[in-house]
Amino acid sequence: MLAYLEQLKTLNDDEEHIRAITEIENALTEKKYGLVWEEHSEEVNEMLAHNIPVFIEDGTRKIVANEEESYNFLLEGDNLHSLKLLEKTHKGKIDVIYIDPPYNMGKKDFFYNDSFVEKEDTFLHSKWLSFMEKRLRIAKRLLTNEGIIFISIDKNEGFQLKLLLDEIFGEESFVADLHVETSIIGGPRRIPAMKGSVVKTTEFVLGYTNGNDTMIMKKPKFDYIPGFDTHYSLYYDETKATLIPLKELLEKTEQVVQVFDALGLKVSLSNLGKVLYSSENARNWLYDAKVSENIFRKADEVTDIPKDFIDCLGEVSFFYYEEKPYILEENGSAKRLFVYKDKLGKADDYFSSYGERSVRGNLWKGFSSDGGNLAQEGGVSFKNGKKPLRLIKQLIDSVTSNDNSNITVLDFFAGSGTTGHAVAQLNAEDGGKRRYILCTNNENNICEEVTYQRLKNIQTDLPHNLKYFKTDFIKKFNQDESISSLMMEHIKELIELENHIEIDGKKVIMLEHEEQLPKVLESIQEGGKLFIPSGFFLSQTDQAILDKKDITVIEIPEYYFRNELREVGEL
Known about the structure:
alpha/beta; 22 helices; Rossmann fold; 4 domains
């Protein structure tokens, strides 16, 4: 049809026909599926037309726990400005993003252009989508090729957000729609439920990958299963060298029979779950490797095993083939056996019990249990949507393999600082080298009095390094001083942020002027780092001194402010 319209243009070249044909072309090529909304411009975005965002360190809030460790960062300011600067330092370098944006419930939770968006606002959804789109497009550029983004949301914007993420990341990159149980029906909430309303007890966590690997769960999480799975009904009796009913083992195990008797229960597999619930001794006996590794259940499917192998078994009905256990049925068919021990392990529930467990799917139950302790977590109060520490820990940990804990985690809706707390705790638990970057504005002093205070509070138990940066601005068209010289005053912060270090003037030094070099060569400590301006020439003598001290020389990137300098005509 489009090709035919092109032909019509050559046959009808008058203005009226061309206009009509063009309108038809536009109708044919316009978006046919996806999310459409009224675009809104933010004041914080318009500021960038005439101002260049920069970071300034608040040294009074710096925390140094170990000078040899990397630094984490808390960035105060509108997250759009922080994200624009992170594009200079962390493009393609963020491994995991977790955000908990405003849910836009019309209850003074979404602040847009210095005012709350009320439920009656006719642009309620479009303002939120405009706000999120700008930030999510940058977020995608910050992720590594195999990076993951998790977003907490609820029904108010969850379905719109899914379409927006499909557009930005691609439908094929959608990897998780987790349903997180955040509350239970009780108290006043029980009344509407009894009247017929479906009361909300879960929230969503949407997950998207930036790469091709959709198998994101490197360390799956497990849920505890109470009771006993009666499918595991066979036991390998080594004295008889054959499989017997598990019930026979129970009946001749005195310490277990005593529990059945004390509970007034008949010895059976169906009652075993009650026995395990009541008796730690019974649990210890069943879960012991000597017992649990000899308990089996039959698979439903028949396994095709070479006939010559089967013929060699003789009277044996229990055997191993390629290191897996099997049972030979009377009709000569072989069925795989599953080992009870493999079903056991430590669960990831609120009370981390050892016992039977199942791999967790997209239903993440039990996080309502964290609610009782939520107010105390981190020693700060936060009324609007404080997320359980355990949830954020498990999200980050689940997508991180054991051999790759050296990752960078970003949260640009930092709120109470749970993500930073989670990263620090994971590192303490497994010795990892994860780093975090948190961004939040300082509305109602949240950054200073909540986010920062929490990261400070946890230092006793989870000591780690932290730098506190604030966003500031340089006017693009400054008549009094060159833009390049003004921006050079803020290069230090970007170097520190990109490399997660501190330029301390001792082991890590930034060379600003050529005349500083002799003093730097003399004072820099062995094994340190020297950042030099782009294009700066080191003589053979200078290089020899640096090599002797094992100094790493790093060129200060030109890309930090290249575009801005080109825009104002200084490049």
